[in-house]
Each structure stands twice: as structure tokens, then as C-alpha cells.
Design brief:
The chain is mainly alpha-helical. It folds into 2 domains: 33-109, Cytochrome C biogenesis protein (Helicase, Ruva Protein, domain 3); 110-163, no CATH class. Helix content is 64%, strand content 0%. It has helices at 9-32, 41-53, 70-84, 89-100, 115-143, 150-161. The termini are far apart. 10% of the residues are buried.
Length: 163
């Protein structure tokens, strides 16, 4: 079988590709993986909770735990350092919000600057309902049968018979 991928040069080619991709896979695993040691299980739990509750600001809809972006790695590193320093979860979140804004939180608090964000689903629902209602009203108005006077009915009947 000449040209089969698992003969001679094909094996060398596949091994070369695997050896070339292996460092990239390890780098990704290290970027996302376990950050290191913690002084207590409470610190580890706090870290794991925070990296799953903070959003990567460059990745749409991913937490910093899920993201491979360099910014997410920096955010994870900062959360790790602050946790190891003994800072509370609230202090870490406050630091991240001060640095990146309320967008960094997956569940932003209800404040004046986030009120539209919280109200937008209801506003969209009511707007869609109002548009739907108007369309239905117009269609009903267009399909209503006209009412004719006795003279008009007689004229229509003559036209129908061909008189």
C-alpha cells in the first residue's frame, strides 16, 4: 500500500505534528489548570468560586475559568494572588469591578447604571406584545366584511345575475 499514512515518512510526519502541538496543549492546560497551593480549603473554594463568577471582558460570555485569553489568565492570576494574600471575595470582586466595570460580574447588581440591563427582557417582551397586538388589530380591521345598504345589495345581485 504505497502512500499509506502509517508507513515510513507518514509516521514521522504524524509524530512531528504531535511533537509540535504538544507544547501548545501543555501551555493551555497550565493557563487554565490548577494555580498552585493554598493555605486552606476555604481559600481554594473562594478561588474556584470567583473564577467561575467573573466574566472575561474580551471573551463574550465566558468566565475567566473557561477562557484561554491572555487577559483571563491575568485575571485568574490576580484572583489567585489576592486570595493567597487573605483578601475576602467581596474585596476581590470590588477590585475587579473597579478595574473592568460591572460587566466583569455575571450577575451585576441592580443599580442605576445597570437598571436598563435588568429591565431589557421585560421591555422587549412588552414591546413585542404591543407590536403583535397592533398587527392583529389591523388584520381584523382589513378582513371585516363590508356592510351594504339595500340599494347596494340589489345592484350587486343584478351584476351577479348579469342583468
Amino acid at each position: 500500500m504505497k502512500g499509506h499514512a502509517w508507513t515510513g515518512r507518514g509516521v514521522v510526519l504524524w509524530l512531528g505534528i504531535a511533537a509540535w502541538l504538544l507544547p501548545a496543549g501543555l501551555a493551555l492546560a497550565l493557563a487554565i489548570g490548577d494555580p498552585g497551593e493554598f493555605a486552606s480549603d476555604a481559600q481554594r473554594t473562594q478561588y474556584q468560586t470567583l473564577i467561575r463568577e467573573l466574566r472575561c471582558t474580551v471573551c463574550q460570555g465566558e468566565t475567566i475559568h473557561e477562557s484561554n485569553a491572555a487577559l483571563a489568565a491575568d485575571m485568574r492570576r490576580r484572583v489567585y494572588e489576592m486570595t493567597r494574600e487573605g483578601q475576602s471575595a467581596e474585596a476581590i470582586v470590588a477590585f475587579m469591578v473597579a478595574r473592568y466595570g460591572d460587566y466583569v460580574r455575571y450577575r451585576p447588581p441592580l443599580q442605576a447604571n445597570t437598571a436598563l440591563l435588568w429591565a431589557s427582557p421585560l421591555l422587549l417582551l412588552f414591546t413585542g406584545g404591543a407590536v403583535w397586538w397592533q398587527v392583529i388589530r389591523r388584520r381584523r380591521g382589513q378582513t371585516a366584511r363590508p356592510t351594504f345598504t339595500a340599494e347596494e345589495r340589489a345592484a350587486l345581485e343584478r351584476l351577479r345575475r348579469g342583468d
